[in-house]
Amino acid sequence: MSHLLGIDLGTSSVKAVLIDEHGRVAAVAQKEYGIDTPQPTWAEQDPDMWWQSTCAVVSQAVRDGGIGVDDVKAIGFSGQMHGAVFLDRGGSPLRPAIIWADQRSAEQCRRIYDVVGRDRLAELTCNPVAPGFMAASMLWLKENEPDTFKRVHQVLLPKDYIRYRMTGQFASEPSDAASTLLFDTKNRTWSQELLDLLDLPRDILPAVIHSWSVAGDLPQEAAAELGLSAGTPVTAGGGDQPIAAIANGVVEPGLLLATIGTGGQLFTPLAEPAYDAELRTHTFCHAVPETWFIMGAMLSAGLSLKWFRDNVADGVPYEQISEEAANVPPGSDGLIFLPYLVGERTPHMDPKATGCFVGLTLRHTRAHMARAIMEGVAFAMRDSLEIFRELGVTYHKAIASGGGAKSPVWRQIQADVFGVDLITVSVAEQAGVGAALLAGVGVGVFQDVAEACSRAVSYGDGAEPIEENRRLYDERHAVFRALYPGLKDVFSSL
Length: 494
What we know:
Blueprint: E1 3-9, E2 13-20, E3 25-32, E4 44-45, H1 47-65, E5 72-79, E6 85-87, E7 97-98, H2 106-116, H3 118-125, H4 134-144, H5 146-150, E8 154-156, H6 158-167, E9 171-172, H7 174-177, E10 183-184, E11 189-190, H8 192-198, E12 207-208, E13 214-217, H9 220-226, E14 233-235, E15 238-239, H10 240-247, E16 254-260, E17 264-270, E18 282-285, E19 292-298, H11 302-311, H12 318-326, E20 336-338, E21 356-358, H13 366-390, E22 395-401, H14 408-418, E23 422-425, H15 430-442, H16 449-456, E24 459-463, H17 467-493
Parallel strand pairs: 1-5, 5-15, 9-12, 16-22, 22-23
Antiparallel strand pairs: 1-2, 2-3, 4-7, 6-8, 10-11, 13-14, 16-17, 17-19, 18-19, 20-21, 23-24
């Protein structure tokens, strides 16, 4: 039977996911790695380490799947977004990659706003700029390592570098290119205006092709390193968020995806690009044709519960924490948690924000704190939902995803806080599966993304909002929203 291979190049690991033509997972292989921090605020990774790790997991997945190398019909990608890999004329990295978590370019971000203007930047990119985005990292390199910058022949996003190692072809695609803040998001092309304003050369940026397009075939040398057949088609792929959305079936307007992983994202597709003029959300190109998406992102969703488990709850299993939280009434008897443990993005875009419990009394227990954390994460995600509503973005179905969707009480809290029916998806390894499905579209295994989703995506348990809880959470969310403005100066002073 023919199989499709999805490669998910993440921040902490790379995974190879092998699926059959019905979307069933045949094998998963994973290799973890770290982030290098040679100086405070820096976050770098070795591109060659990505490649060696990718070769290892691809070979392992094919072995574990028990298939012949000729049975892999196409390769697709999902990748960490925003980062920059700087290559010389021979295609070798000039320095370690600067990834999305890097914070060194805060001054360059401020200068981008000064030079371009917030309103014009929003019109062109539909996004705020942040440290770790390719635009800011390129400016930092130009100003701080000018000799290196002069030698740059191509700059690639992380997953585009791995695809280059496989095919020898420089390319990108809209869903990831839009995350660089050098991209005209509405017109799905590099912005010459932005490049001119920032005095950055156009010729070091790769051509942009469709996310499902075949970017090249495996040559003999790369095929041997990967343990695959020469000539295997390699498709462009996409950024991790839109690719995971494909595995959740979130490929057309009217669908809302709520993901609680380490961070939290609220994601919905758009038929036309819409953006928040206050730059509190992100609008990027989707990996499906002529579709965009708007996304609110928070930094400490599941991370907040992990901090609680490791430091307060004596490392008890998440299942036990969930059961304890379920025995606490909605509203946590007046306890509210602000989940800003590492700052916050949507809607505050404030790296100085910190986490806190408000309303703590003698009657509150560990279980109260656990439920307050779950409610606080849902409140923070609802902040994004309120911005969507301000922009007139509507939806008729909501899908809960990530580790938070495994908890029945957390699913119910989301349904009550959002005021919408939630369902879950039974697809595991969503970024890798989504990458493989998109590769299948590229080589004709599926007619289009909709057909790929219809074959592979199935839905499981969900939750319906309880009216009494919904009304209570409406009141508590209003209190939650009032806390950040009252504490903003305190956060900064701390």
